[in-house]
Amino acid sequence: MRQYKCDSALEQWAEAVGPDYVVTGEAVLRQAETSTFATNRRISAIVRPANREEVQECLRIATRCQTAIYPISSGKNWGYGSRVPCSDNCVLLDLGRMNHIVDFSEELAYVTVEPGVTQSQLYAFLRERHSALWMDATGASPSCSLIGNTMERGFGHTPYGDHFAHTCGLEVVLPDGTVIETGFARFASAQAAPLHRWGVGPFLDGLFSQSNFGVVTRMTIWLMPAPEYFQAYYFRCEGEEGLSAMIDALRPLRLSGTLRSASHIANDYKVLQALRQYPWDQPGCATPLSAEAMKGFRKTLGIGAWNGSGALYGTKGQVREARRLLRRALAGKVTNLTFLDDRLLGLAARFARFYQFFSGWDLKLMLEVLTPVYGLMKGIPTENPMTSTYWRKRDPPPASMDPDRDGCGLVWFSPVAPNKGDDARRLTGIATETMLRYGFEPAISLTILIDRSISCIVSITYDRHVAGEDERAKACYQELLSTLAGYGYHPYRLTVNSMDAASEGGAYTELLQTLKRTLDPGAILAPGRYLPIVPT
Amino acid sequence: MRQYKCDSALEQWAEAVGPDYVVTGEAVLRQAETSTFATNRRISAIVRPANREEVQECLRIATRCQTAIYPISSGKNWGYGSRVPCSDNCVLLDLGRMNHIVDFSEELAYVTVEPGVTQSQLYAFLRERHSALWMDATGASPSCSLIGNTMERGFGHTPYGDHFAHTCGLEVVLPDGTVIETGFARFASAQAAPLHRWGVGPFLDGLFSQSNFGVVTRMTIWLMPAPEYFQAYYFRCEGEEGLSAMIDALRPLRLSGTLRSASHIANDYKVLQALRQYPWDQPGCATPLSAEAMKGFRKTLGIGAWNGSGALYGTKGQVREARRLLRRALAGKVTNLTFLDDRLLGLAARFARFYQFFSGWDLKLMLEVLTPVYGLMKGIPTENPMTSTYWRKRDPPPASMDPDRDGCGLVWFSPVAPNKGDDARRLTGIATETMLRYGFEPAISLTILIDRSISCIVSITYDRHVAGEDERAKACYQELLSTLAGYGYHPYRLTVNSMDAASEGGAYTELLQTLKRTLDPGAILAPGRYLPIVPT
Q1: pLDDT at position B346, please?
Q2: Does the distance separating the beta carbons of A204 and B204 come in below 8 Å?
Q3: A506 part of contact set with chain B, CB < 8 Å
Q4: Contacts of residue B515 in chain A, CB cutoff 8 Å?
Q5: What residue in A sits closest to B208 (Cα-Cα)?
Q6: Which residue from B7, B270, B283, B463 has the fewest beta carbons nearer than 10 Å?
Q7: Given an 8 Å threshold on Cβ–Cβ distance, is B191 in contact with A512?
Q8: Closest to B478 in 3D by CA, of B531, B404, B413
Q9: What is the per-residue pLDDT across B51-61, written as a single tens digit (0 to 9) for each?
Q10: For strand B179-181 and strand B453-463, is the pairing parallel, antiparallel, or unpaired?
Q11: Shortest CA gap A143–chain B (Å)
């Protein structure tokens, strides 16, 4: 048992949420302190409120008892720190029990959820109702919280992939226990509350995203009408240098609105990680897998140095025209441009060899990769990308995967670059060289999430059970962070160990600190999250 | 000369910006105090800084001297208060001299501007460079500030019509004179500064929109690549009751992304105001123009009870498919669905009578209205909509229009409703009845600016030189505001006389007040703007 400023803190929380929902068992706390990389934060208890009123009371108790409290929704913030707080000796405020879907409109295409609502829960909800609406899904995990991912500005693969841009009307509990609703929702019975983001007066939603200014307890998510027709596209380039032309060819299509969703471009290492574990069985299998060895896998598996995918949404006519424009833009710049729809996917699964003959793709193998990504582009959550966190493990992924528990090493570094070939080449070149030098396979993806920029994800994947790997991963991340910041490529999201990188140390950080002192004078809420802790 | 807490305030400002740029002439101040409706605020001086450093110094002086200071960009906030502050005895901080276009990228499609940059200035800038990019334009005036309109969340007619949603990287001077840059721009030489809105950590841009928390001195605006092909569409319905089906038919097209820009739907009164002044020459011309008389004009002019317009952007193939879908959706629900492109517009102007024979539109007359709206949908600023502010005047609009100077009465009331036929009918029905009862023509437009909501603009247009009209307009506005708020239709934007309507009087307003006290403890910046003044 650990110390609180207030001896009765645990009793007070137990009174607020019920004694069954205050967890202090050492084994459970140890698990919650375990991420996919090394952290040194201790968690003193887990408190699990059932509703917004209990959240309010929990924050009031934390303020009275001067105890830091760290909210998690599903705690599946893998690659960035899982459930681990940004500072030591926090109480975890686990919002997982607040899992109600509180409003839904088929006609106006939205759903209003609590923080415990997961991707798979919303997906099932829509299926049960035979809804003609699609959600957007992130590749993280079906059991990932929608609010958690959105507030961290996570993204997905449909036209609604920029999650934070497709939300409306937050309900937020402030550190002092006060509740506000943003946008028009602050007016009782405002008709446009779930429909119009800005409301009237200052727009405050952004204050509560990637911050420690409040706990979001409800959010409206806009949903996308299922298109009449859906077609995925895939392409690749054989050499590293082909990336630049590929990006520059896609940009005009994104800017013109022809491509309504993200194109996702993965390098060879990234695809290999999605396909299989590390080839321990190969002769001379010393890590990291060398560029030379990787070239061998490219040939065997029929993948390129860079492998693009994305999807077209619309009527058959709209998709046909987009396909024509995509073909024209990519002509001579990529190879194996392939289109796949539900019908062809069914056929291809049955006639893989025949299909390979015509398309050059080894479908028997590739369908394994394509199908989950294909589903993601339709907003179907999938566990499949999680298998890649087991890349460096010697045993295959278990049926019930848990990267935290299983010692999977994963650190995600996510710099943003202009949507230009030159920038993509420079960024990925530096990342590749750095990763290999530290002994990691440079698994990299580029997502053209919004028109003008690229969200890059560099995955440092390793086995935490191998001595020294945690330290090397940390050093590698730090070097990536500082080197690429030097080139002007800053991350859109940070791990719990690297939050200081959100601070430029100037007037902006000072403003955030001022806001923090105002909204949370006791500094009880998620200290250090996207804002350095000021010593008192 | 008026009083300041600090005798030397004017001298200090004169030192900061140069004596030529501190204006205290009574005639000029009287003009600046004049809006398109009655206000009772006195302005004590106008200070005109040349750059950001001077803005900083001006705010520091205001803080030292405890003098309220009210920033305007171009001061063309017509219908909402022009240059008039929300509280008495402010100094106007006129940012008009800061009119530099400081960055531009054809490739990544953006421009970075200062507050004095106007619509016509950006338009000319793009034309000079033979740019293939389009700006979005609002109908207000070519001399309207881009930053001013965006920070008030004004809107236009292209796919980039939601102005605030298409900006990035603000530079803001806080009330204490500190400067911050938002998003990635806070990191020196961040490559994605003008390209990626959210940056890392809390997203603060919304704090400075419709607020009094800071002065925006620079902003990046995203521009739209000119489409290969552009086609406008027009349609109407004959009776009031047709509106509902029209809205419900358009909604799925907007939600599916087939319509990428706003559909704009104007009632008969609104179209008549755009076409001509009040028909004083008609027998029995007592105001307001009755519904019966309006029906006569509908017949004569060939307009409907509701008149829709919008545009399709893309390749010829994309536009063809969108046109097919629009035709199908509107079939049986509207009449006279007409498509117009550059070629046909040229032909129609030459062969108007011939065209009328086939289409049923009186083009000789309608081209007068259609051409400026047509241009707006291509992002071309126009003075044309301004003529309607002279609707109730006896003399025609002068060559150089200035509604403030000319005693044009104009109050814009702008409630937001769900994008549903029922809501549109209810809202416009109440507005129409109320307006006529107060003696005003109910000129109403509905803009489906974003997928799920309708931005309604009710124009109270009158002659300020007619005794009693100012008072009636005020009373009418107040009744519209309170009645429609009762139905849950709240305005997206407020006049300088009605800022209290942004307050729900609860926790949200209290949070805003807390932020205001923190950021502006002396309450020197734009007191009362979107936030009630708390008596000290």
Answers
A1: 81
A2: no
A3: yes
A4: 202, 515, 518
A5: A202
A6: B283
A7: no
A8: B413
A9: 999 999 999 99
A10: unpaired
A11: 25
The string of pLDDT tens digits covering residues A497-521 is: 999 999 998 999 999 999 999 999 9
- Strand A90-94 relative to strand A43-47: parallel, antiparallel, unpaired? parallel
* Percent of residues in chain B assigned helix, strand, coil, to nearest 5: 35, 20, 45
Cα A245 to Cα A419, A423, A424, B294, B299, distances in angstroms: 12, 11, 10, 59, 58
Chain A contact for B365 (CB, 8 A cutoff):
no
Residue A254 has pLDDT above 90, yes or no: yes
Q: Report the distance separating Cα B237 and Cα B164, nearest Å.
A: 32
Q: How confident is the model at residue B238 (pLDDT cuts 50, 70, 90)?
A: very high
- What integer is the mean pLDDT of B211-219? 98
Check: CB of residue A414 under 8 Å from CB of residue A493: yes
Instruction: Please report the ipTM that was assigned to this predicted complex.
Output: 0.95
Q: Given a cut of 70, is residue A356 above it in pLDDT?
A: no
Return the residue of A nearest to B164 by Cα.
Answer: A198
Query: Is residue B350 pLDDT above 80, yes or no?
Result: no
Task: Give residue-wise pLDDT tens across range A76-86.
Answer: 999 999 999 99
- Confidence (pLDDT) at B5: 60
Residue B529 touches partner A, C-beta closer than 8 Å: no
Condensed to tens digits (0 to 9), the pLDDT of residues B291-348 reads 999 999 999 888 999 999 999 999 999 999 999 999 999 999 999 999 999 998 887 7
Q: Which helix (H) or strand (E) holds B46?
A: strand B43-47
| 8 A C-beta contact, residue B385 and residue B372 | yes
Residues of A in contact with B502 (CB under 8 A): 200-201
Q: Chain A contact for B518, CB < 8 A? A: yes
Q: In the prediction, which pLDDT does B237 show? A: 96
Q: Which of B190, B317, B416 sits opposite A488 (nearest CB)?
A: B190
Question: Which of A101, A111, A43, A103 has its CA nearest to residue A75?
Answer: A43
Cβ contacts of B504 on chain A, cutoff 8 Å: 186-188
Q: Which of A179, A225, A487 sits opposite B507 (nearest CB)?
A: A179
Contact B230, B342 (CB under 8 A): yes
Residues in chain A: 536
Yes or no, beta carbons of B191 and A252 under 8 Å apart: no
Smallest CA–CA distance, residue B341 to chain A, in Å, is: 19
B475 touches A: beta carbon within 8 Å: no
**How close B158 gets to chain A, by Cα (Å)?**
12
Instruction: Name every chain B residue with its beta carbon within 8 A of the beta carbon of A150.
Output: none
Read off the tokens for B194.
Answer: 């003008």
For the cut 50, the answer to whether the pLDDT of residue A2 exceeds it is no
Task: Note the pTM of the prediction, 2 decimals.
Answer: 0.96
Q: Is the dihedral of CA B264, B266, B270, B275 positive or negative?
A: positive
Helix (H) or strand (E) holding A265: strand A264-267
Residue A204 with chain B: CB contacts under 8 Å: 206-207, 511
pLDDT at B440 over 70: yes
Query: What SS3 string covers B375-428?
Result: HHCCCCCCCHHHHHHHCCCCCCCCCCCCCCCCCEEEEEECEEEECCHHHHHHHH
pLDDT tens digits along B469-525? 999 999 999 999 999 999 999 999 999 999 999 999 899 999 999 999 999 999 999
Judge whether A174 is closer than 8 Å to chain B, CB to CB. Answer: yes
Q: Is A326 helix (H, G, I), strand (E, B) or coil?
A: helix
CA distance A230 to chain B (A): 13
A498 in contact with B, Cβ within 8 Å: no
